[in-house]
Amino acid sequence: MRLVVTGPVGVGKTTFIRTISEIEIVDTDRRATDETAQVKEKTTVALDFGRLQFTPDMALHLYGTPGQSRFDFMWDILIRDVHAYIVLVAAHRPHEFRHARRMLTFMQQRSPAPLIIGMTHVDMPNAWESENLAIALGYVGKRTAPPIVNVNATDRDSVANALITLVTHFMTFQSNLMGTTL
Amino acid sequence: MAINVEKIAGILQNFVNSASDVQGAALVTPDGLPLASTLPSAMDEERVSAMSAAMLSLGERIGSELARGTIERLFVEGQQGYGVLTSCGEDAVFLVLASQRAKQGVLMLEIKRAISELKLALG
């Protein structure tokens, strides 16, 4: 199963994959020289790749995207044929929500795949509540928000929980799809 | 010492004008930001820079993962021409676009020369 981990710069996409992958991850980190350098030293410029044997007959292939929009061609490549994806958002950096929303729109225009939102950095002061985050991401009125989970990208159990939610969400989505076509 | 951007831009301009069948060149940071470029007008500098960095990083990763050693260059051969990516020291990536008429040997040699000039300018 092909899963994509996306979201703005410095939310923990590479960490997320590194924490859970069984193989040594393929990363493409380069020293950051843009405004990213204030948040972290290195930044992903192409993709991250990790793998996890989820059940005996299901392997998860995890692809991480770069965060900056100048790499949107990588978003475009990675989101194709994806089964499901998780958008990570740092709960304590509200100024990034608009960027996250743009990424969401970008992905949704290119892929019908189901998604969930992972809130990272929820332990920080000024972290937003998930209800408010949903509103900030444009899920108001009739637009129901996708599942929102808290994720600590450095904690294996937390990442595993997020993946379980993502896979479950995918399966519900699939069975609903079957239901409507029958 | 501050990087002499004008000098770098001058080297690129000169390279594109004098090297045979070269259509464009760009010098970008390894994380995909433009330093200087002389590109065909239809191409967006930011996009080209990000793509160059992504491609070189993947290429280098393939080099180490698949035991090809240190990568000298990445070569994209299309029906309309070539795209050649070369690492230019630790702080820069050099992209050259050439038409399909370009002679590969000459092109490589010209790139090599341009790189030694650029490295000096980068300090």
Describe the structure.
The complex is a heterodimer of chains A (182) and B (123). Chain A has 182 residues and is an alpha/beta fold. Chain A has one domain (2-178): P-loop containing nucleotide triphosphate hydrolases (Rossmann fold, 3-Layer(aba) Sandwich), CATH 3.40.50. Chain A is built from five helices and eight strands. Chain A has helices at 13-20, 72-79, 97-110, 130-136, 156-181; strands at residues 2-6, 29-31, 42-44, 48-55, 58-64, 84-90, 115-120, 148-150. In chain A, a hairpin with a 2-residue loop joins strand 4 (48-55) and strand 5 (58-64). Chain A is globular. The mean pLDDT of chain A is 94. Chain B has 123 residues and is of the alpha+beta class. Chain B has one domain (5-122): Dynein light chain 2a, cytoplasmic (Beta-Lactamase, 2-Layer Sandwich). Chain B has a five-stranded antiparallel beta sheet, sandwiched between helices. In chain B, helix 1 (5-18) runs antiparallel to helix 3. Classes of the chains: A alpha/beta (182), B alpha+beta (123). The A-B interface holds A 26-34, 36, 43, 45-47, 66, 68, 70-71, 73-74 and B 29-33, 46-47, 49-51, 53-55, 57-58, 61, 65.
